[in-house]
Model the fold of this input.
Amino acid sequence: MRSYLKNMKTITKVDYATYLGVILAFIVVTICQSQGLVNRSVSGMLVPICCYVCMSISLNLTVGILGELSLGHAGFMSVGAFSGIIASMSLQSSISSELGRMVIALVVGAVFAAIVGFIVGIPVLRLRGDYLAIVTLAFGEIIKDLINCLLVGWDENGLHIALNVDGTKSMSTLGLSENGIEIIKGAQGATGNDRIATFTMGFVLVMITLIVVLNLVRSRTGRAIMAIRDNRIAAESVGINVTKYKLIAFVTSAALAGSAGALFGLNYSNVTAIQFDFNTSILVLVYVVLGGLGNIWGSIIATVILYVLPEALRQFSDYRMLVYAIVLILVMLATNNPQVRALLGRVIPKRKGAALDE
Amino acid sequence: MEFLSYLITGISLGSIYAIIALGYTMVYGIAKMLNFAHGDVIMVGGYVSFYVTIFAGNNLLGEDPSALATGAVALVSVLLAMAVCTVLGVVIEGLAYRPLRQAGSLAVLITAIGVSYFLQNAAQLLFGANPKNFTPIVSGQLTLFGGQLRISYVALLTIVACVVIMLGLTAFTGKSRMGKAMRACSEDRGAAQLMGINVNATISMTFAIGSALAAVAGVLLCSYSPVLQPTTGSMPGIKAFTAAVFGGIGSIPGAFLGGLLLGIIEALAQAYISTQLSNSILFAVLIVVLLVKPSGLLGKYVPEKV
Done:
């Protein structure tokens, strides 16, 4: 056993440590919850934290591993959230088990987000650098606007969908029967959802996301993706199909964001499209960059800390977002300024193998 | 006639975007960074002008001020807003961006986002979250064709200001010593430094000019849609960034053209297609243009060297 551990690559050890850390955190939180040590405000944060952890891991796949800046990741979350809500609400009568509906919602969310990711990815991935970033931003805004116009209802005849482009349509245009359910009401969003998301489901989703991303990254495909990031022309010249591998990374990332969105949507009784705007994409990007590009466990830790930080700063009430902004700037200055880094390097000796993560 | 009036609204809105986009594009061309805080500098400019006008209205002007006095107050408020924003821009650059000159572009981007959060929240604390009702700096409108076509003086002023600024900037970057230094820095920062150009001072200067333009844009934007709140600048900021990319980022005529086209598309889409989807239409046009011309309308195509 010991020799097995010794022979393992550092990367593999880090991966296992990541899995172990997530499992341990889940066990500790569950035990605390059963002992009544977790108050309501903290337990309300557990599912969103799981969602954002999945979001930042999946965005890290695009930004850190593939090396393309995406500013529209919340768009995929939005697609996942609303398709998941539609699936779960319309299956309410036929499937009574909440767990069953939850799983179906997550799968539906992932599939729809993957389809949108594919449609968006084909044009977007032809561009480079900041142009790619601005186009992902544009797609995110378009998705938000379209969902803002979407009217969806369900009755025994199936789904009724309308797009309220000119502001003249309302829920009554859908022509729902008496037992129909209004699912998405345009700009008001989805109201009256079943809140069926649970922390256990969130944990399972984080684990699935981790398994998918880590296995992808450590596989032949993952190495091809990283080769494209490091030098596209060199990668192309050794026969790597750039478009194919870029699309694999982008669509996987979108699908994972979609299932995270579905979980998020089913955790609240009201969800609107505005919640998934540009600022949400930026929020997740901040988690990824502060956690370290391409560093999966870094993303997890940064997400948890940065999600909890504004809540922990509640005592500063009005000043909390100001403090958050200052902390963000100072952390970026401290970690990226050469002088500060040299100073830190003298205080803390660089550990062995640290370079592997970078 | 209806079409003409929508077109003029579009051109004046586009002129505001163009002024903001000029600031974006200059900073991008020289510092190679996306300054996400640019939109919030606009908001600061709006607030400064708002408070100067309120202060003057309460203390300096009498009950029924003459047109000349109101005009003078408007001018002073714009100049003060420009001064405050210039200082703000230089301070932001010096404190937050300069230490990261050697760092990766993503690190700078996140810092810019941090600065943007900071400005928004500081404004919320200082000025309150409630929207303020901004008094347009010029009132009244021009009536043409027997009342069929009305053009507000603000729209005319915006268009004139935009053209003047664009011509001024083109002359400045083309002829003056500092402008040449800016172009040199944007071409190759290392080589410019070796030629004895003070790169840090040049970048500071760029931020100063960009922020002064943002102040002008802020006042014009608030005169166009008179609601002022801490988040006023963010959406126009994003759209102006889009405009800069649309026209080819780093190019001054490109930013002008991009801003103008974006404003026209937005106004016409709002009038004839859908108010809800006007932003989507605008972004869809951007996507199509970038797919056909990946470096923007007037952007330079830089071939990749192997």
Chain B has a mean pLDDT of 85.
